[in-house]
Amino acid sequence: QKEVEQNSGPLSVPEGAIASLNCTYSDRVSQSFFWYRQYSGKSPELIMSIYSNGDKEDGRFTAQLNKASQYVSLLIRDSQPSDSATYLCAVSGTASKLTFGTGTRLQVTL
Amino acid sequence: SAVISQKPSRDICQRGTSLTIQCQVDSQVTMMFWYRQQPGQSLTLIATANQGSEATYESGFVIDKFPISRPNLTFSTLTVSNMSPEDSSIYLCSVDSQWPPQYNEQFFGPGTRLTVL
Question: How far apart are CA A8 and CA A1, in angstroms?
Fold first, then answer.
């Protein structure tokens, strides 16, 4: 059974639209939640962290966490072609280890 | 965040040989981790590199195949031993952020792309 699940995509959105990326996790004791962006051929880059229920905004990015539903999402407003990448959801419990989802490939079209 | 470098950035190796990958951080860090990313796949944790003690391996990974060293708080190595084509992957090291320590943020090095023929 997968511990962190994401839709693999590709998710295609037009430039300027809102991209919505979703992730569910199975371990109820998970405490920290992360979104990484990975461009093709590059290593993952941390773009958002969230630890408590609700929304966290950073520029064009908003992370949303609902621990009761075991659900975390990432919204990207005003999507740009440079946002085209794979977005990895990662979850951490008490042992500092990260468990990654399989990633959602986002394509922002002109 | 810390600046992380890895050597080599890529290599092509023959089956049956071994390759040692180095990870260097520009500041002292408590936790260092090694991940594998197979083609088209997500990241899988191989082990946690502990300074001054043996690494902690995840299920499916063993010390004989992936020996790890962590001689100090800024450096670690991962060796891929007796390689087969199935070991062709990107190998990534990561470090935890130092503050706040309870949040477990990790930052990744640039990765080592390994191809085994």
Answer: 16
Residues of chain B contacting residue A90, judged by C-beta atoms under 8 Å apart: 106
Map tokens 């005003």 to a residue: A78
Does residue A1 carry a pLDDT above 60? no
CB B73 within 8 A of CB B28: yes
Dmax over CA atoms of chain A, in Å, equals 42
How far apart, in whole angstroms, are the C-alpha atoms of residue B117 and residue B104?
37
Smallest CA–CA distance, residue B111 to chain A, in Å, is 6
Stronger pLDDT, A29 or A56, i.e. the higher one: A56
- Per-residue pLDDT, A93: 77
Chain B's closest residue to A43, CA to CA, is B110
A47's tokens? 């773009």
- Closest CA of chain A from B102, distance in Å: 8
